[in-house]
Structure formats: structure tokens, C-alpha cells
Amino acid sequence: MSRADRLERLDTRRVELEAEYEDVLLEALRKVAAGSWGLFGHTKDRAAHAKWEPVVTDLCDRGEEIDQMRDQLGLQPFALHEEFEASRGPVSTNAPGEPKQAKAWLERLGKEL
Prior knowledge:
The protein is built from 4 helices and no strands. It is mainly alpha-helical. It is elongated and about 55 Å long. The model has no long low-confidence stretch (mean pLDDT 92).
């Protein structure tokens, strides 16, 4: 198998993984927009954190795999994952709540409820 064939297969798999990542993220954003807290890690509630931990771990694992593929292909890191990672963690007390933040994400992505 030639290098070009391997790169083409890798790029095809990358596109598939990015679509899967977006699907998982959109499903999670819709649940958060409906009132669930914990995806963005803005709350100190351990139960909310535990509830969303598998989804966050899945997204991070997928994001890392996609970034490795992008690196092999000479592409920039996966912007959607970078944005998600940047949006997580503690925020100031006057920051919008997670449901409002999720709705803003959905609007920005053109995938409203």
C-alpha cells in the first residue's frame, strides 16, 4: 500500500471520527440546554460531575485521536474539541449557566434545539 493510499484512508477515518465527535457533542449539548448541569464542569456538584464524566472522557479521547490523525496529515488541531476544552472548568459567578451556554453553542453550530 502506498503512502498516498494510507494518508487517504487516514483522512477518511478522520472525517468519520470528526462527524462522530460532533454527534456526541450535539447530543450532550441538547441535554444540557434542556436543563442538565455538569458537562462544562461549572458546578462543584459531584453527582453532576460523575454523571457527565463518561461523556467528557469520550469526547476528550476522541479529540486526542483526531488531533493525532490531523498531526500525521499536517493539519491544524481539531478546533471544535479545542473550543470545548476551553469552555470547561470554573467560571465567575456572573457567567451564564450551563444550559444557557449549551443553547449558545447549539445556535453557533447551527444545530438549535
